[in-house]
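Researcher: We're teaching a course module on how sequence relates to structure. For the next exercise, students receive a sequence and then see the predicted structure as tokens, so they can try to spot secondary structure elements on their own. Here is the exercise chain.
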Amino acid sequence: MALAKSSTTRPTMVYSLVVSFLVLAIMCSTLPSCHASNEVKCKPLDPCDDAGCKTICAGTGMPFASPFCKETHPPLCCCIG
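Model: And here is the predicted structure for the students to work with:
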């Protein structure tokens, strides 16, 4: 509240707030951590096992592997990154 009791005018405070929100919005729109940037790629996996799926995903540079052995036909390995 020190800003409100100083000699700063109300339009100056409003302008400062608008500029700070604008800067925050620009920063968030340019940083990848602000976006849900999950990409999913699925490949057929035969034989379907967890180790084989992890190997496929590690080879593509995607950190998370999810094998769908019984749920899909043909069995799939989905990599999430």
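Model: If you want an answer key for the exercise: The longest strand covers residues 40-44. The helical segments are 2-5, 10-30, 50-60.
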